[in-house]
Design brief:
homodimer; alpha/beta; Rossmann fold; six-stranded parallel beta sheet; 13 helices; 45% helix; DNA-binding
DNA sequence: GTCATAGGAGTAAACGTTTACGTTGTATTC
DNA sequence: GAATACAACGTAAACGTTTACTCCTATGAC
């Protein structure tokens, strides 16, 4: 009788039925050398026969590698994260890694909990997306001794590889685009005021572009949101109140740009006739907007892939990857009008 | 000397430093009984001191439980999946489970590969989202002997618990809503023609509503997409060609409804003045549309949570959960006009 | 015929836990 | 004072793999 009838078959079961040792089965499984063709056939046949599947947990225990990575998002369900995740997932899967998704809610407590869970589960590496790498996190990460890469973020004090676009330059280019289309009254719906990653640099780019073209910066032209649609709406309402002369708006995220579109429509403002809008991200959402949104593309999907590539490289070659500044470009659609 | 200086500390290290056996450490770790207060303090102190973290892999090997679930999506980055994933992730995390995301691309090969990976990694359960549970999959699932729950899907031949809205009824209600607003020329942008889950039932609901109100069904009023924005655009173009008399459109997904909005705008058609539109899903996208989209809400986030709840229940109590028909409701926004 | 060699295979330790079982010592009961 | 009970531990097996060693046998060189 099979002493192990109800459970999933193990390497032992295969060994017994094939009349070989488990070492031999392991060898053919990992196709190493050290067995005859005949044994190989026999073993492989038994494996098919009883439907044996290796146990990655046991494997992980001895190999100290789990073929698993963890990915931390401030908000998994945001349309922004979705693209990055897609890239990560795809690359990881193609290279035989699985991915744990973690939703931090931008909450320190939650993040720390996740970090501990990922550590317990022995992930081989971690990707941190669009979030500040707080020192608190970094310490745990160091204790874990696993590679980390940042995507759409950056850590100044630590030598963690990152992938992001040059936010200041990208913002500059967006605003310059508006200027070159004849606009001089340009407002901005910024991201989080204190965000050193995606908030501040983009307003810096905005301000610099204005400066370079001799356009005075006006306080009332700059309002803050937190990158989301809802706050984008509030911000746009403010703009309509305080900056009715603006002919163009630069929004620091597509979600907020779409919010601008939405409240503009609510107020009977035509886009781009009454007001031009340029976004930032190039989400699918931008294509779907009415009218289709002109925006700066940051290839989130590719960033996800690239980040995963770097991470896996670090895992497998025990090296440290370099950072990369992702190229950006403006994709012209229909929300910016040329002023004559 | 610590013989284990460079690696992460293990339970053995704790035991040695605390002058107790590993069994005792294990006991305080899992707070069982069988040790004195003094020992407990000592052990806990050492744990803090050397920063010990249990190894979930080793734990998983012996417990045959990994506190991990797998989630399969046809497309992780779709705005539809994002909401479900968010719900799943949240509930899972709150109950100390981690989640592996899998992107099947609706591809059988990929799906099977994933199923095998999930099996190897010994997940405790699997959630299948918005996809047919093919017999091929079901067989593997059975071999794995892990609980499965379906969300926004359903399997007739197998007793797998599912969570979904009554698609036919929801579609019926949507169309009825249009009818009660005075529309009689109602077109439909359907989902995938062969999709028995979300495709066919929704057109059945559409047809039935027309019937019940004595409105003749017209072939040219029904076009097919695959739930996505891109195909929604193509579908809408067809409708404008073939059914210019339609005063209202029921789209089988919000993405397609937004596509309807987009191409309508492109053709100079005003929403809802020239044409009314009702969607299906109630994604954030619906709120963001211009004008905001009237649609049928299916509470995807809650469905994700509920599915995970059922799954964990099945895992922990070795029971089989029942299915639930999720309530739906129409959320009125601004894309449906009352015909006088 | 002897020796070295290499191919083909088995043995057993190790990975980091949990847990059934055994042992010791002390307090309680009569 | 013997019997009992229980608290407070320790021992060792087990989970399913991988892999360093070891062993045997056949082959070929000389």
């Amino acid at each position: 009788m099979n002493p192990n009838a109800s459970n999933n078959p193990t390497i032992k079961d295969v060994a017994r039925k094939a009349n070989v040792s488990i070492a031999t089965v392991s060898r053919v499984l990992n196709n190493l050398s050290g067995y005859s063709d005949k044994t190989e056939q026999k073993v492989k046949q038994i494996i098919k026969e009883i439907g044996y599947q290796p146990n990655a947990i046991a494997r992980g225990l001895i190999n100290k590698r789990t073929q698993t990575i963890g990915v931390m998002f401030p908000n998994v369900s945001s349309y922004f994260s979705a693209d990055i995740l897609h890239g990560i997932e795809e690359y990881a899967n193609d290279h035989n890694y699985s991915v744990f998704v973690c939703n931090t809610d931008e909450d320190g407590k939650r993040t720390m909990k996740y970090l501990h869970v990922l550590r317990e589960k022995q992930v081989d590496g971690i990707i941190f997306s669009s979030e500040m790498l707080k020192e608190e996190y970094y310490e745990v990460l160091q204790a874990m001794k696993v590679p980390v890469v940042l995507v759409s973020s950056k850590a100044d004090y630590a030598s963690v590889p990152y992938i992001k676009v040059d936010d200041k330059q990208a913002a500059y280019d967006a605003v310059q685009y508006l200027i070159l289309h004849g606009h001089r009254e340009i407002a901005m719906v910024s991201g989080t005021e204190t965000d050193t990653m995606a908030g501040i640099p983009r307003v810096e780019g905005y301000v610099k572009a204005l400066q370079d073209y001799g356009i005075p910066f006006k306080e009332n032209y700059l309002v803050y949101g937190n990158f989301t649609f809802d706050e984008g709406c509030i911000a746009m309402e403010k703009l309509i109140q305080n900056a009715p002369e603006a002919t163009a708006i630069f929004a620091a995220s597509d979600e907020m740009a779409v919010a601008v579109l939405a409240v503009a429509a609510k107020h009977g403002l035509k886009i781009p006739d009454d007001i031009s809008v340029i976004g930032y991200d190039n989400l699918k959402l931008a294509e779907m907007a009415v009218p289709p949104l002109t925006t700066v593309d940051q290839r989130l999907y590719d960033m996800g892939k690239l980040a995963t590539g770097k991470l896996i490289d670090m895992i497998e070659n025990h090296c440290v990857a370099d950072s990369t500044i992702m190229p950006h470009r403006i994709v012209e659609r229909q929300t910016v009008r040329r002023l004559t």
